[in-house]
Amino acid sequence: MMKNLILLGSTGSIGENTLDIVSRFPDRFRISALAAGKNILLLEKQIRKFNPSIVSVSDSKTADALRARCSGLKTEIVAGTEGLLKAAAFPEGEMVVSAIVGAAGLMPTLAAIRAKKNIALANKETMVMAGELVCQEAVKAGVRIFPIDSEHSAIFQALSGNQKKDVRKIILTASGGPFLHTPRGQKEKVTPEAAVRHPNWSMGKKISIDSATMMNKGLEVIEARWLFDFPGERIEVLIHPQSIVHSMVEYIDGSVMAQMGIPDMRGPISYAIHYPERLPLDIPPLNLVSSGMLSFSPPDDEAFPCLSYGFEALKAGGTLPAVLNAANEEAVAAFLDHKIGFLKIEEVIKKTMDSHQIRTIQTIEDVNYADQWARKEAGALIEKLQGKS
Ligand code: NAD
Ligand code: MG
Question: Taking CA 148 as the corner, what is the angle to CA 349 and CA 211, rounded to the nearest 5 degrees?
Fold first, then answer.
């Protein structure tokens, strides 16, 4: 059976990996819609190859430039928030691969859920900002959310065939990123170029920095809480630098289910878009003899405070996770822009969280309000820090 996909964030790392799978299985998937920012050269190639019905880009100027390159083609080109929401809810699409980076992924994901489409979720920020609300909407719409994040895909697989009441713990593994053993004093001076170089995965810039600060794992704890409807107090993190064990589920009888594989995002993407069947992929088999030692250690909260901010935001609840997310996005962008130093990222997040008055979330507007508030607050902090770092 052919499945019609809507791919949000098609020019990114997850987007390109998704299209790689689609191109290998043309009898199983069709691309109905694409959405991305401004990379029209790549979008033109994707349009010519996959022939989507509709493509959304960031703004009308970009749309004009793309239309000029694609004249004679049938693809409708739309722009801005309106265009993005239209692509996300496009009628012929059955499943939406949500792979835009950051808070920009929330509203289109929600629009897709409301339009009764199943979701393959890479955009973890959606779950961090509004996990409870988004899951309620998914139940209401009768759709499912399949994880693409490798840890969550591992947990999803380790849960299958078991009962949630029998789970004692969820254990997320973390590589520790490029600075796992870097002393604090040296982290002060790391450059964006060094920080985006992840030892095991090739990913977009934002998530690469999140991995270097380990904010990524803090976000993933919150993501796991909502995706699996599981209490945060029983979610743990283990450092596992080899990224072979992608995560684990521990049961009440002491049995631990771990999912393993060599790090390649096409594994979890294909599982999410083709569940419950698996696709034959050309990923090299895991060779445990040649992969060497697998090691595990507890995370160091002093070296990586962002991980504990994730737990803290989850525990406090309400608008705090959305605030954490927005402050992180602003701080990471400022670091990538050479405006603040690496260690200032955690400082901006912490200070923004500390000055926030938590509110309960009733509607998505409450989430967006908290997001905007935190961006302003973090922006002011960044301005103050600039020059001092
Ligand atoms: P990326 O930076 O490589 O790609 C981001 C994509 O989003 C691009 O196509 C870009 O054009 C698009 N985009 C950005 N802002 C947009 C906007 N306002 N409107 C429309 N499109 C916009 O990022 P990535 O590494 O592919 O990550 C995407 C998401 O997947 C993130 O939430 C990340 O945390 C998550 N994720 C990524 C990986 C990975 O291996 N890359 C693994 C797990 C989870
Ligand atoms: Mg992950």
Answer: 35
Mutate to test the pocket of ligand 1, among 8, 10, 14 (most ligand atoms within 8 A of CB): 14
Q: Check pocket membership of 203 for ligand 1, CB cut-off 6 A.
A: yes
pLDDT tens digits for 303-331?
999 999 999 999 999 999 999 999 999 99
199 has a pLDDT exceeding 90: no
Are both 3-147 and 317-389 of the same fold? no
Q: How far is the CA of 327 from the centre of ligand 1 (A)?
A: 18
Distance 12 CA to ligand 1 centre (A): 5
**pLDDT tens, 97-133?**
999 999 999 999 999 999 999 999 999 999 999 999 9
Q: What's the whole-model pTM score?
A: 0.98
* Ligand 1 contact, 265 CB (< 6 A): yes
CA of 185 to the centre of ligand 1 (A): 31
Residues 117 and 385 sit within 8 Å (Cβ to Cβ): no
Name which residue sits closest to atom 43 of ligand 1, judged by CA: 149
CA of 150 to the centre of ligand 2 (A): 5
Domain boundaries, the chain: 3-147, 317-389
Q: What single string gives the DSSP state of each residue in 102-143?
A: SGGGHHHHHHHHHTT-EEEE--HHHHHHHHHHHHHHHHHHT-
User: What is the predicted pLDDT for the residue at 20?
Assistant: 98
Give residue 125's identity as a one-letter amino acid code.
E
Tell me which of 3.40.50.300, 3.40.50.2300, 1.10.1740.10, 1.10.530.10 is the CATH number of domain 317-389: 1.10.1740.10
Q: Are 113 and 138 in contact (CB under 8 A)?
A: yes
CATH number, span 3-147: 3.40.50.720
Q: Residue 329: CB within 6 Å of ligand 1? A: no
Distance between Cα 288 and ligand 1 center (Å): 31
- Nearest-angstrom CA–CA distance, 196 and 153: 23
